[in-house]
Amino acid sequence: MAVRSVTLVDVARRAGVSRTTASYVLNGRAERMRIAPLTVERVRSAVAELGYRPNRSAQTLRTSTTSTIGVLSDHVASGHYASSMLTGASAAARRADHLVVIGESEGDVDLEALHIQEMLDRQVDGIVYARLVTSTVIVPDSLRDQRVVLLNCVDEQRSYPALLPDERAGARSAVETLAEAGVAGDVWVVGDDPTPHALAGPLRMAGIREALDELGTPLAGVVSCPWAARDAHDAVHHWLMSGVRPGALVCLNDRVAMGAYQALATHGLDVPGDVSVVSFDGTELATWLRPPVASVELPYTALGELAVEALTGAEELTPSIRWVPMGLVPGRSVPDRERPFH
């Protein structure tokens, strides 16, 4: 004999509430409908005790929603950053009783168009439009009238809600880390950002200059190079051959810091004894360097969570930019002892 599936009515009876109240709780509308926390807890306990699973098809017909969120990116399988973004997005979706549908375009506009059409055919409740590199984008026309949140990117017309790392504030914290340690001597930036439409480099540079100017110590200069270890090594090596001896280096990402470390060692310069170093991105590489480099961390997990929370929330989406804080991953690349900062 077939076993009867547990229904929402069963859950409501077990919790001692109406079917409507149980539905509000399970659809994330308890707070908006002013349902008491104890009632919410009874409904959730009943769900757990009975092993209730909502009927997605019936739910779609009843609410005109599919409880799915699309995540569309140029690269969603490209290492630490993308996986952290998806971890955050998936966690927020689970809390809202949603599923995540993922699409990766690899920068191919035709493939992106196919992913968008598939998501629209699935009638997803919203789309997270993401970029691996913080940048300005042109949002496809097919998304114009859809429920969309931009993640790690912003559209040129500022027509969509966007979530971006607060790169400027993160850069200021990097300089403040040096200042709090009393680091002496000139401060130089290592790196360059020639990527079209990229935002991280300009924002980081702006924050660094602002913080140094406030301290009365203007930026000494920039050692220009692509954001890669070999390029950074070669650039810093040739720069040091001129006889310059910096007090501190602000490397624009952890790979640049790795190359700078190697060049400093070649010239017999100790980190942090001779030169202090701070970096950006907060990758595992930052902890592998010896000594581990203090690095301003990209908040990809938080970005993914906040994007899905915005799409699954009850509030109306409006064009805006939300700057998400960047924390500092501690390292031993800045001295503990205090010296005059000048």
Labels describing this entry:
single chain; 342 residues; alpha/beta; six-stranded mixed β-sheet; 12 strands; 19% strand; disordered C terminus
Structure description:
The protein has twelve helices and twelve strands. It is an alpha/beta fold and 342 residues long. The chain is elongated and about 80 Å long. It has a six-stranded parallel β-sheet, sandwiched between helices. Helix 1 packs across helix 2 (19-26) and helix 9 (229-240) runs parallel beside helix 10.
The secondary-structure element order is HHHHEHEHEEEHEHEHEHEHEHEE
Major sheet characteristics? 6 strands, parallel
First-last Cα distance: 83 Å
Overall average pLDDT: 87
Helix/strand/pairing class, anyone? alpha/beta
Please state the CA-atom Rg, rounded to the nearest Å.
25 Å
Give helix % range. Answer: 40-55%
With strands numbered from the N-terminus, the spatial order across the biggest sheet is 2-1-3-4-5-11
| Number of separate helices | 12
Low-pLDDT residue intervals, each spanning 5 or more residues: 338-342
Strand content: 15-25%
Shape: elongated
Write down how many β-strands occur, each being a DSSP E stretch of 2 or more residues: 12
